[in-house]
Amino acid sequence: MASYRPKNILITGAAGFIASHVCNRLIRNYPDYKIVVLDKLDYCSSLQNLLPSKSSPNFKFVKGDIGSDDLVNYLLITEAIDTIMHFAAQTHVDNSFGNSFEFTKNNIYGTHVLLEACKVTGQIKRFIHVSTDEVYGETDEDAVVGNHEASQLLPTNPYSATKAGAEMLVMAYGRSYGLPVITTRGNNVYGPNQFPEKLIPKFILLAMRGLPLPIHGDGSNVRSYLYCEDVAEAFECILHKGEVGHVYNIGTKKERRVIDVAKNVCKLFSMDPKTSIKFVENRPFNDQRYFVDDQKLKNLGWSERTTWEEGLRKTMDWYIQNPDWWGDVSGALLPHPRMLMMPGVNGSEETQSESYVSTNADKTRIEVPASISNGKHQPGAQRYQPVNCIE
C-alpha cells in the first residue's frame, strides 16, 4: 500500500485534548511537515496543550473559528494546505442537552464551511474528518460483534446527532465533488491534559480533593477507553495509510462499566468506594453500551499499546503534577456541568490568548480576514486585520 506524504497540514481544534496529542506527535516525528493549527480557544481548549510544539519551526497557531469562511479560505490558500485533520467540535454530551444549538453551529456548520473551502480551492489531497462511535447509537448488551464501519448510524443525543449530520456532509462532498475524504469514529479517549468535564479526569480531580465521585444512574453503562498516545498513533497511521472514501473505527474490545472506572480511581487514591461514590440523576438518555469493530484499522498496522492500568496511572500522575493546568474547574466537576456552554461563564479565552500568543507577538504576524471572531463578514469593514500567531 502506497503511503501518503502530506506537506502542509491544517489541524482544527488542536488546542483541545485529542488533537493536541496528534499535533505534538506529528511535529515531533515529521519535521518536514508544516502544521498550521486553527482553534478559537473555547472553554475546553488551552494553548498550554501545544507547549511541546511551540518552539518548532514547522508549527504555526492561528486563533479563529472554523465557521469563518473568509478565514478558512484564506488559510488554505496562503498556507498552501494540502491536508486537513478536522477535530474541532463541541463534544460533551451533557452540554448538548443544555445548549444543543451550539453543537449544530460548531459540528455541522463548521464542517460545512471547511468542506466548501476545500471544494472552492481544489487543492486538498486528504480531508480526515474526526467523528465518534456514538453515531452508531446504543449497542445491544448481548452483542458479541461490535459496530463495523458500514453499520447504520442511529444517534441518540444532540451531540451524536450533529456528528452524524457532519458525517453526511463529508460523505456527500466526497461523492458529489470528489473530495478525498476519510472519516474516523473513535471510542472514549483519556489521558493527560483532558478537560475535566469528562469522566476520568473529573474522577481523578475529585479524588485529589477528597470529594465523592458522582455517577449518572446506576453506573452499569459500559464504555471502551483508549489512552491518548495510542489514539494519536492511530491518526498518524490513518494519515499515511488510510484509503480515501473509507471509514475507520478507532477502538478497543476491552470494555468497562462506569462504576468499575470509579472503583479503579478509588483504588489508586486508597479511597473506600462504598463511601466515595455517589449516584446522581441520570442523563435524559444515557446509552448503555458502545461497541465497535476495530479490525479495519488493525489491518493498517495499528494496535493499542497502553494497558488500562498503565494509562490510568500515567493520567493520575499527570494531574497530580499539574493540578492547576485548567485553572478554576469547579464548574466542570459538577455532576451535570451544562452551564459551561453559556456565554461568559468561563472567561479564560482572552487570558489564554494573551499569555501564549503575545509572547511571540513580534515574531510572526499573519493577515487574516476581519471579523473572524464571530465568523461573519461585516460589509464596509476593513477586509483584513493583523493577528499575532505562533510559528
TrEMBL record:
<keyword id="KW-0520">NAD</keyword>
<feature type="domain" description="NAD(P)-binding">
    <location>
        <begin position="10"/>
        <end position="315"/>
    </location>
</feature>
<feature type="region of interest" description="Disordered">
    <location>
        <begin position="372"/>
        <end position="391"/>
    </location>
</feature>
<keyword id="KW-0456">Lyase</keyword>
<dbReference type="InterPro" id="IPR005888">
    <property type="entry name" value="dTDP_Gluc_deHydtase"/>
</dbReference>
<dbReference type="InterPro" id="IPR036291">
    <property type="entry name" value="NAD(P)-bd_dom_sf"/>
</dbReference>
<dbReference type="InterPro" id="IPR016040">
    <property type="entry name" value="NAD(P)-bd_dom"/>
</dbReference>
<protein>
    <recommendedName>
        <fullName>NAD(P)-binding domain-containing protein</fullName>
    </recommendedName>
</protein>
<dbReference type="Pfam" id="PF16363">
    <property type="entry name" value="GDP_Man_Dehyd"/>
</dbReference>
